[in-house]
Please model this.
Amino acid sequence: MPSTRLVIADDHRMFRQGLRELIERKTDFVIVGEASTGIEALEQANTLQPDIMLLDIQMPGLDGVAVARQLAQTQPNIKLIILTMYRNDQHVIEAIKAGVRGYLLKDADAEELIAVLERVRRGEAALDPAITAGVFDEIRRQETSPPESESLTPRERDIVQLLAEGHDNRTIAARLHLSEKTVGNRLSEIFQKLGASNRTQAAMIAVQRGIATVPPGRE
Model:
């Protein structure tokens, strides 16, 4: 299997170097490029075609969310992870809307970073546990009128509930006595019905519309 290719975009050189050393020492990811500005990040994405890009939010020129929005249009196959100091819930929501697959705080430990990288590589989404509950609270506060969507079946509602609880496909399959392939197929249908592009968006929309609830332990 070919190596997963990664680009790091952050305006702090020492932070990029530390990330490179950590990732190369503890994982099989290959760092193929670095960028210190939003413009450089776009150039690296277009030139190197990485599988995953780690983006800081605050960068000169274009911030990480703006970069994510552009890449969602021009390079949708690149999986994006925001790695930042900012816990602001609106930042997280805007990043998810822009197509980001993962959002991790810079004070996370090495194991948390590697876990997020692995989940995103598998096509899943990952939010830092420290900010997940705050994001759901912010969604509840926002006054929106979501478009009408095709109603979910009872089984799809079960899947969405487990999704909102933060379970991966393997756990959902085991809980509902389904195969992982069936869960993946059902999730694709759920995304279409909810107008979501990934797991995190689907969970957010489901909570916002009252289809799923966040367990007390995550609030």
